[in-house]
Request: fold
Amino acid sequence: MFFIEIPIIPAFTDKTVQELLTTSFHLGKKARHEYRMSKQIFLDGQATTFEQTPELGQILRLPLLNEKATSAYSGQINILYEDDFIAVVNKPTHLKTHPNTLSDKDTAANRLQHYFEQTAQISASAYHVHRLDQVTSGLVLFAKNRLALAAFSYQLEKRMIKRHYLALVEGQVSASQTIEKPIGKDRHIKGKQHISSGGQYAKTYISPVEYQQKKKQTLLTCELETGRTHQIRVHLASIGHPIVGDTLYGSKRQQQRVMLHAANITFYHPFFDKTFNLEAPLPHDFLVET
Reply:
């Protein structure tokens, strides 16, 4: 049996084991029951109970819960940050975040799983907390086990994880604005989304960084308030400024890639009681005129 070790920091000292799992890590009821029934919870090597309150400096050891490892696939993976609980990957364009079908073997998740195996992290599984479109490059947060997945998925649901993108769009955007339009599936074109009154609520903040007069295109920063499929791409197209190279959503400019990059992510790390702010530089294929 494999275990995960959690150092008891000041933020944890006034909570029982059950309170830590419930209110600090937001583990679901079913998983908490699995832990309770396992009778494999330890503090400094001694068996303990859900009712025990850990002390500062102790190590809480919990068994890993029926982890379902993604199949491994050898390929280059750019890891910008890693610890015992998470890994933040800088995904290139044209690579999927995770498998969608059984035939998907080469994705960021598969490559990350291969890295885990090559570095003897035999207890780690590549669980994506959020995803990027295949055509989008940039930062993706992965959890290494179900406990970390629960903790960070809660933050994503509560919109505590902040993600900022850079987008190169057609035309001039002269002022910051908020785009608040519902998004749903396009019934006529498979894999496409569109603005729909019956769609899901979606909200995006955009702000111009630089207007490139020669090419008549604007570099924008975009922040997601929600995380709908193709949200930034659909929202920008809906105001008449499709992303350069995004022919699915109306761009008339052929490029090797869609000019959308997840450049920044900010999140709270509940296992360390610390806020992280990570950045991914623009990749070489992101064409920005200077």
Q: What stands out?
A: The first helix runs from residue 17 to 24.
